[in-house]
Specification:
By secondary structure, the protein is α+β, with helices and mostly antiparallel strands. It is built from six helices and ten strands, in the order H-E-E-H-E-E-E-E-H-E-H-E-H-E-H-E. Strand 3 (101-108) and strand 4 form a beta hairpin. It is elongated.
Length: 277
């Protein structure tokens, strides 16, 4: 039984097959999968952050963002090539063995296609497999994650938004899910808030926490207030801002700026706002 299993595609805990032809420079198998025996990597792309639209049913797609891998495999010379269906079955069987889901399968012009999702070690991975009868197959893989925010609004842009609208939404203040402790990545945004307050010593602010609609209402209201209090406490203790200039408020999910029907909308609703008193 064990020998029979290892004839099929399996995950990286098993030994990778020997390569008869070289892979493209800098390319390797993804962490989740090995490859079909007798194949080499013809081309690959590795994008730190991107999105891909996965077909999850007839006429319906799901856009997923995160680390994007694209790999094309070609069959080696003098190797009997498997059918597209055999390739798809190897992958879908492997996904099912570790509790993953096959979301959708379809045939298109002789090509076999499968969309799969695996949640493992806290990471959600989506894969689109396309297998043709011409000796090649490809994988589009998204390791779902939020983008690392490299651009933070500076003090001058915050001041401009407050002058024009009375408020500014911040997305550079980070918390773990369901928690109110500030993460270290929040420092850049806190630095800019401090500069904003230093530049205009008469400015007083409501610091308002917002959440998406996931979870219980009362818990979200408390969480949003706790998060805003964490921001105020950091500004008072670390940046020596007068506590009289800041008031923490929590609006929970009651003031969304986008629909909570998508992950993108929920991400926009999870924010901290500075509102002029």
């Amino acid at each position: 039984m064990k020998k029979l299993f290892c004839l099929f595609l399996f995950f990286s805990a098993c030994i990778a097959p020997l390569l008869a032809q070289d892979d493209a420079e800098g390319c390797k198998d993804p962490g989740l999968f090995t490859r079909m025996p007798g194949y080499h990597i013809y081309r690959c792309e590795d994008l730190q952050f991107d999105k891909y639209d996965f077909i999850i049913s007839d006429g319906k797609t799901q856009s997923v963002e995160g680390h994007h891998l694209f790999i094309i495999y070609y069959v080696n010379d003098n190797v009997q090539q498997p059918s597209p269906l055999q390739i798809v079955r190897n992958y879908t069987n492997a996904v099912k063995k570790i509790g993953g889901q096959v979301l959708y399968e379809y045939e298109d012009g002789g090509m076999q296609n499968a969309i799969m999702k695996v949640v493992k070690d806290g990471k959600e991975t989506w894969t689109y497999l396309n297998a043709s009868g011409s000796g090649q197959y490809s994988l589009q893989i998204i390791e779902k994650e939020a983008m690392s925010q490299d651009v933070v609004a500076d003090a001058s842009s915050m001041a401009k938004a407050i002058r024009e609208t009375g408020r500014v939404a911040l997305y550079g203040i980070y918390f773990d899910t369901g928690k109110s402790e500030l993460k270290p990545d929040s420092q850049a945004a806190l630095d800019q808030i401090s500069r904003l307050l230093s530049a205009d010593t008469s400015l007083k602010l409501y610091v308002v926490g917002h959440t998406d609609n996931a979870g219980a209402y009362d818990a979200n209201m408390k969480l949003s207030l706790d998060r805003s209090e964490a921001v105020v406490n950091a500004l008072v203790t670390k940046y020596k801002v007068s506590a009289l200039r800041l008031k923490a408020c929590g609006d929970g999910p009651t003031a969304p700026v986008a629909a909570n029907d998508t992950n993108e909308g929920k991400a926009l609703n999870r924010r901290v706002e500075l509102v002029k008193q």
